[in-house]
Amino acid sequence: MARDAAPEPVGDGLNVRLRQERPIPLDVELRCAPGELLALVGPSGSGKSTILRAVAGLYRPRHGDIACDGQSWLDTGRGLNRSPQRRRVGLVFQDYALFPHLSALHNVTAALGHLPPRGRGARGRELLGMVNLAGLEDRRPAELSGGQRQRVALARALARDPAVLLLDEPFAAVDQVTRRKLRQELVVLRRRVDMPIVLVTHDLNEAALLADRLCVLHRGRTLQDGPPAEVMTRPHSALVARVMDLGNIFDAVVAEQRPAAGLTVLRWLDYALEARHAPAFPPGAKLTWVIPPSHIVLHRRDRPSRGEHENPVRGTVGELAVLGETTNVTLAVNGRKDCPLFFTVATHAARRNGLAIGVAATVSLLSVGIHLMPREERGEQRAVDPARHELAAIR
Amino acid sequence: MDWSALDLSLRLAFWTCVVLLPLGVLAGRALAYGRFAGKGFVEAVVALPLVLPPTVLGYYLLVAFGGASTVGRLYEAVVGHGLVFRFDGLLLASIVFNLPFAVQPLQRAFEAIPSDVQEAAWCSGMSRWRTFWRIELPLAWPGVVSALALTFAHTLGEFGVVLMIGGNIAGETKTAAIAIYDRVQAFDDAAAGTMSAVLLALSFLSIGLVYTVARHGSRRRA
Hints:
The complex is a heterodimer.
Chain A: H1 2-5, E1 14-20, E2 26-32, E3 37-41, H2 48-56, E4 63-68, E5 71-75, E6 80-81, E7 89-92, H3 104-109, H4 117-130, H5 146-159, E8 164-168, H6 176-192, E9 197-201, H7 204-210, E10 213-218, E11 221-226, H8 228-233, H9 238-243, E12 249-258, E13 263-268, E14 271-276, E15 286-290, E16 296-298, E17 312-323, E18 326-333, E19 340-346, H10 347-352, E20 360-365, E21 371-374, H11 386-394
Parallel strand pairs in A: 3-9, 3-10, 7-8, 8-9
Antiparallel strand pairs in A: 1-2, 1-4, 4-5, 5-6, 10-11, 12-13, 12-15, 13-14, 15-21, 16-20, 17-18, 17-20, 18-19
Helix pairs in contact in A: 4-5
Chain B: H1 3-33, H2 39-51, H3 54-65, H4 70-79, H5 87-97, H6 99-111, H7 115-123, H8 128-139, H9 141-157, H10 160-166, H11 176-185, H12 189-221
């Protein structure tokens, strides 16, 4: 009967639909086209890894359909559940899960069971070469660095010629420098493989850097799905903004609507903020707004600049963190520590403007960056089903 | 020096290992991975021979194998002779009292394999059977060696159960341990001394092997 209700055309790439209440609540729908990199982001316990395990066939959800390249892997309605061996997945585990007693080469050839035995060695070497491990074929995992182990795991995942590549926090277990290098390698590798790639990460920057699309998860439910830039600047709800740890999330009231000027004016503290026209919120409506640090402009001390008339906001510098070329600034708006505005400036600009803790400063909030969302009710965060409330509020 | 007794002991130890190894691998793996009702009870039963006085174990085996018992009668009907005071009975008893020595190291060895290594094998397209031979068994290898060495050494040294179930029949049930007792009773200290030294050396070698393999295994995986 579920078949008749949803005659979902099974196309190219990966199509996933999972539903269950227990033991882990899941309510997700995912698509990942060939060549596309989809990042699943969300706090720990949001179900990211469970979804990945379900795709690999290592976890069986109560209800769901999973299909890849037109082939059904899971269809609980028909009682179909293919084993991991019959799914053609490449999975890179968080701790890599290499076979400790086998050399790097044999770790890879172990996944080449579909080739005739004589061709496996050559193909294994080729794959290790592709992940820049030529010359280390005979090393055992214990004799490899963290980054090298991750590469072996990646080569092993690709060995099966998988229909989908799954990466479970693949950069979590290595140091910062190696992480940057491995990410870059993944960017390069993507151009060479043409399969859907699903990346699980809790690192937003990583997701934004690598992914074509983000899927924000919270307690097993999809909150928002879209290109990284859109999700990070135009979250559907305050909950998405919080889950993504966007910062600069504030409550305000709609003061007036000026459709002719293309503006919605907000009352926030003692400011009248001009935002892009959002007709969904009538005057008097309580809402939540968010602004990315990239749309906050520091006023120059010596001479005024053009943007200064746009939503000027005063405050005192609460925190200052110099990170090489850029400096992270937290401005206590109107001197209030409970209204911290976070933005970054070039370190030389911070120096020239004499930014220091306790110093007064003025910034402009560019109206195109101000994004309005329905107010998040207090206590809704703790509600049994927060995601559904949020989504219902949007629709 | 009673060579036939030593030969009997070695034969008993060898056949116990041969029968118990596959049994121990199956049981150890099932206990390591299995989630079933009464698992604790099964583990307790496997561990019982460790704490039971050998005479108690021997008594129950004697009752279970005796001509009046179902097992004893069945065996006699099939093979043509009974179990008690025979090598066959001794071997069966040896398998029972060595269960913990074979099962427990193997169970620990299988438990030590991270579950994601097993899952990685499945995701690499390896069947469960192939995963067992290529991944699980090689990784559980230190457990296999421990199980074999402990079973071997313990069979050589067992006295109480052997005496209860097998008695003291030369060439059939008189093992080295029994023979030593026999020699001491006969004030033949020289023979008892020689045989004790041989058993000591064999036991020491077996245990030494266990420790060497255990250390090598942990170093390889680090």
